[in-house]
Design a protein that fits this description.
This protein is mostly helical. The protein has 13 helices and no strands. It has a domain of 104 residues. 69% of the residues lie in helices and 0% in strands.
Length: 277
């Protein structure tokens, strides 16, 4: 009877867990995605594009940019619930800049930003809209940049920024190695992340000389982070040496004890043999 009751309770708990997990999955699938995924052509395209984006990877979905009510089909696109439709061309920097504040300011003060009202490039021109990809130097390429001008200046900026990116990649590799050893490096990881963000933000100024100058400053910051990593690695090395010394000492003590015990045993055997004779 008790076993039957236990099986019933376990089965009921399992079913409740399934229902609960299903409700969580539905909660994450907004009505925006449900509706547009069921449409055709250009109305469904944003869903598949968004699914490959850096926004999707970080849990940023339709209402985070467009507002509205993502839980109610009737009110999803209601201005009363804060819904914002597709921004006009010149409104895109302000639209994206609600989150990317520093980048927006750098862009608006740049040659690109100053040419916005005359058709100059804005965020979507380089990053796309719903299929936004992770910011990387690969976005700076002859195909994209040559749509408006020669690639020369952009190539110079990319080269300078590449130095910083390679340095940061090396730092992050070393930090990952320390983290795998159980060393707390979250604060230093934050410094490296901030350095990367500042470096990538700098591109939006599109000023070659400024990028070159700031690259030198970034190198100094990277050297500082490298120094922190080096200090941890040195400490680990010292601990390893101490550990090796302790193990060696214990091994030596074990050998001495073994030899003493062996000598003592030989003396006992000799005395026993002598008494028997």
């Amino acid at each position: 009877m008790m076993r039957r009751h236990f099986r019933y309770s376990a089965g009921l708990t399992f079913c409740l867990l399934l229902l609960f997990s299903g409700s969580l999955a539905l909660a994450e699938d907004t009505v925006c995605l449900q509706c547009h995924a069921a449409l055709e052509g250009r109305l469904s395209a944003p869903v598949s594009a968004w699914q490959t984006s850096i926004h999707a990877q970080n849990g940023i979905s339709c209402p985070d940019c467009h507002g509205g009510d993502p839980t109610d089909f009737a009110m999803a696109m209601s201005p009363a619930r804060g819904f914002l439709g597709v921004p006009k061309y010149g409104e895109v920097p302000a639209f994206c800049g609600r989150c990317h504040v520093g980048v927006k300011d750098d862009y608006l003060n740049s040659a690109h930003g100053k040419a916005l009202n005359s058709g100059g490039p804005q965020c979507v021109s380089c990053h796309g809209n719903h299929g936004v990809q992770q910011a990387s130097l690969e976005l700076i390429n002859p195909t994209a940049c040559s749509r408006c001008h020669e690639f020369g200046r952009a190539a110079e900026i990319k080269t300078a920024m590449g130095e910083t990116d390679r340095m940061i990649a090396g730092l992050r590799t070393e930090l990952a190695s320390l983290a795998r050893l159980g060393i707390r490096v979250r604060e230093i990881e934050g410094e490296a992340f901030a350095l990367r963000n500042d470096s990538h933000r700098l591109f939006h100024t599109v000023e070659v000389e400024k990028v070159r100058k700031e690259t030198a400053a970034f190198q100094q910051r990277g050297d500082g982070i490298g120094g922190e990593i080096g200090a941890i690695q040195d400490e680990l090395g010292d601990r390893k040496l101490i550990g090796v010394g302790v193990v060696g000492m214990l091994l030596l003590i074990s050998i001495i004890c073994f030899l003493i015990r062996k000598t003592y045993q030989q003396d006992e055997d000799a005395q026993r043999q002598s008494s028997e004779d």
